[in-house]
Design brief:
heterodimer, A: mainly alpha, 2 domains, 78% helix, 0% strand, B: alpha/beta, Beta Polymerase, domain 2, Rossmann fold, 3 domains, 6-stranded parallel beta sheet, 4-stranded antiparallel beta sheet, 15 helices, 10 strands, disordered C terminus
């Protein structure tokens, strides 16, 4: 089973690389659209199977190690993207999402796969809820980040009046702005629930609801940045470019929170 | 030479000539031409930019180009009641596959005034269907026109020849659509009720834009234009307040200075809580201070910007035209092969007839020298002669049918007719 999921993992990586190339080609050649979408779906299937085998194999939710968590996180991202593509027909976002997925998934190979001992506190329903909510929230933030990048790119084209091919492929500013807003709102709601559920569980497991562990601190900072996004947008008309910059800054905190804190800082969450 | 195209278009003839040669009822004209002696099939294609006649001629006109042209030209002169030969300088004539290529090029929009436009394909289709309904078309022109329609569709779907705006008004719509997801329900403010702003507004309206507000120094003209769009006229001073509500602004006044300043725009943006504002300045001298375009969420385009978009799009279309030409090449080759394959059948018939004639003659001679044969023996000899020619001609028959549809089909047919000394023209029955 381990060999099987390992092989599938490599297959998923190869398919994502091919899909990323095809989506990129689609920016320039319209008829690459079919190949790109097909490769993207195939990669997602391989990805789903990889994740499925790991879950069956270990008999627990896929986030005991950072490798699994990344596998799960990128999977959610692709599911998120695939849904969004069918809702707003945003094929061109694939040129941004698939490379991000590929890079994250590829770097997962270097992450801890097995721990010598599984921390007994990492078992139980609360922790599963806590981790799922947080990771789904991160996936929503990633998608918002991608749409914000696309927004800035499209806005730059509209302002410079130098329209390149990508201008025609990219959707309107309104679509990009509206959807990154929605995704930030969803992501923030999930992050809030993730923090609350984590705090409840910490109260049971560690005896204290909050201990300013680095992960907790970074989560609060991330929460504050996205909270500011929603607030400034609602109260001070921060649409468009300013909002896109905020969403990108917020995502930097997400990345630090997800990777740097877990890998390098001494944290109770270290073993995540 | 039996497929011919004779016509005039906007490249070869001025409008005074084209209007004289235009056919009000192409279907009826097609039918009239198909009744002319020597003409087997006919389709007349007539639009405001071209009048073209496609005809498939019978053997009487075969071989000599000028004859075919004379038949058509004579018909055109008679139909329009004009002296013959009057428009010789304006007319172009194409034969056989060049005629086919011309139709495919026209249908794909490559011969149109606006490169790659799509209306022509519908017009070609209408003319063809009208001719078909009147019974003017047959096997060959039906095949040719079906292929032209298919080629046109392939051009539109497989290349970007018909994409992207090639008029200033449509370029404005295209840009607006990259700011707003949909133009539906958006408010437009027109400053200066001129011809140009009306043109752009019309494009935006067909793009879904509603709720037009017109501001003009002369209020009556604002009223007139607002009435045409079902909109609302406002006095010129109201521009400042209307800016807060509008999503798209079209400005084309004859004012010497700027009508909209960055201060006005900034004030409006505060009121509209930073919602995007799309400004089109088609006035010369310009109405909108260019620094308005630097305000956040404000997108400003002047007439030069729009024209640059159009020019860039035309350049794209010229590039795409090369791809369409490759599709046309492919379809013309395939049509040529089909056309040639039609010649295989009569040739095979000739070959078989010739063999049969020889067989009968030789059989008679042989039987004359063998008087003592019984009925059964005569039967055996006769059957043997039939079997020999059938078996011998079996392969050439199959091969000719097959090779006729190949690239060099005509060469094979010619070789066969030379080798067996067959003269298709004399048979009096071709295709």
């Amino acid at each position: 089973m381990i060999h099987l999921s390992g092989g599938l993992y490599v297959l998923a990586l190869v398919l994502y690389a091919a899909a990323a190339a095809a989506y990129f080609g689609y920016l320039y050649f319209r008829h690459w659209e079919g190949a790109a979408a097909w490769l993207g779906r195939a990669a997602l299937v391989a990805h789903t199977l990889t994740l499925g085998f790991r879950v069956v194999e270990s008999g627990r939710p896929p986030f005991a190690y950072l490798f699994e968590a990344t596998l799960f996180f990128t999977w959610l991202l692709m599911v998120n993207y695939t849904l969004l593509e069918s809702i707003i027909g945003l094929k061109v976002a694939g040129a941004f999402v698939t490379p991000v997925t590929f890079v994250l998934l590829f770097s997962a190979a270097a992450m801890p796969r097995e721990a010598s001992v599984i921390d007994p506190t990492l078992a139980g329903a609360w922790v599963a809820v806590h981790l799922s909510l947080s990771i789904i929230g991160y996936a929503a933030f990633t998608m918002a980040f991608v749409l914000s990048l696309m927004y800035l790119l499209q806005e730059k084209q509209l302002r410079s009046k130098a329209f390149r091919l990508i201008f025609r492929r990219l959707p309107s500013l309104e679509v990009l702005d509206t959807w990154s807003h929605r995704l930030v709102a969803v992501g923030l709601a999930l992050l809030t629930l993730g923090i609350i559920s984590g705090s409840i569980w910490a109260g049971h497991a560690w005896g204290s609801h909050w201990s300013w562990d680095p992960k907790e601190t970074w989560s609060v900072i991330t929460w504050a940045v996205y909270g500011a996004y929603l607030l400034l947008r609602a109260r001070f008309g921060w649409h468009g470019r300013k909002a896109a910059y905020l969403s990108i800054i917020g995502y930097v905190f997400v990345l630090v929170n997800f990777f740097v804190v877990n890998l390098f800082l001494n944290s109770l969450h270290r073993r995540l | 030479m039996s497929l011919v195209c004779v016509g005039v278009n906007h490249h070869t003839a001025p409008v005074e000539v084209r209007e004289k040669l235009a056919f009000a009822d192409p279907g009826e004209a097609s039918a009239a031409l198909s009744r002319v002696s020597g003409v087997a099939e006919a389709v007349v294609v007539s639009t405001c930019n071209r009048a073209e006649i496609y005809a498939f001629l019978e053997d009487a006109c075969l071989g000599d180009g000028p004859d075919a042209q004379a038949v058509i030209a004579g018909f055109v002169a008679a139909y329009h009641d004009l002296p013959a030969g009057l428009f010789g300088d304006y007319i172009y004539v194409h034969y056989e596959l060049e005629a086919a290529r011309h139709l495919l090029t026209v249908g794909a929009g490559l011969d149109s005034m606006v490169l790659g436009e799509t209306q022509i394909l519908g017009q070609v289709k209408d003319c063809y269907l009208a001719a078909k309904e009147k019974g003017a078309t047959g096997k060959v022109l039906s095949e040719l026109f079906e292929r032209a329609l298919r080629t046109g569709k392939r051009g539109h779907s497989e290349t970007a020849i018909s994409q992207n705006a090639v008029s200033v008004g449509y370029a404005a719509v295209e840009l607006a659509r990259k700011v707003f997801h949909s133009l539906e329900g958006r408010q437009t403010l027109i400053i200066g009720a001129g011809k140009m702003s009306e043109l752009v507004a019309k494009h935006l309206e067909s793009g879904g834009l509603r709720q037009v507000v017109v501001a003009n120094r002369t209020f009556e003209r604002a009223e007139e234009m607002a009435a045409r769009f079902g909109g609302r006229p406002v006095p010129f001073d109201a521009v400042t307040t209307e800016l807060a509500r509008a999503d798209v602004v079209i400005s084309s006044t004859s004012a010497p200075g700027f009508v909209l300043t960055p201060e006005m725009i900034r004030a409006a943006m505060r009121q509209r809580r930073n919602r995007p504002l799309f400004l089109i300045d088609i006035a010369v001298p310009r109405d909108i201070d260019p620094s308005c375009g630097h305000v956040e969420n404000v997108f400003l385009y002047d007439i030069d910007d729009l024209q640059a978009v159009v020019e860039a799009n035309l350049e794209d279309r010229r590039r795409e035209a090369k791809k369409v030409e490759r599709i046309i090449d492919e379809e013309v080759r395939s049509f040529g092969a089909w056309l040639t394959s039609l010649d295989a059948v009569p040739l095979i018939r000739l070959l078989r007839a010739k063999a049969e004639t020889i067989r009968r003659a030789e059989l008679e001679k042989a039987l004359a020298r063998l008087p003592g044969l019984t009925e059964k023996e005569r039967g055996v000899v006769e059957a043997m002669s039939s079997l020999i020619i059938n078996k011998l001609l079996n392969d050439p028959t199959l091969k000719l049918k097959e090779l006729a549809t190949s690239e060099d089909g005509r060469v094979y047919l010619r070789a066969a007719s030379e080798l067996f000394n067959l003269k298709p023209g004399e048979e009096g029955e071709r295709r």
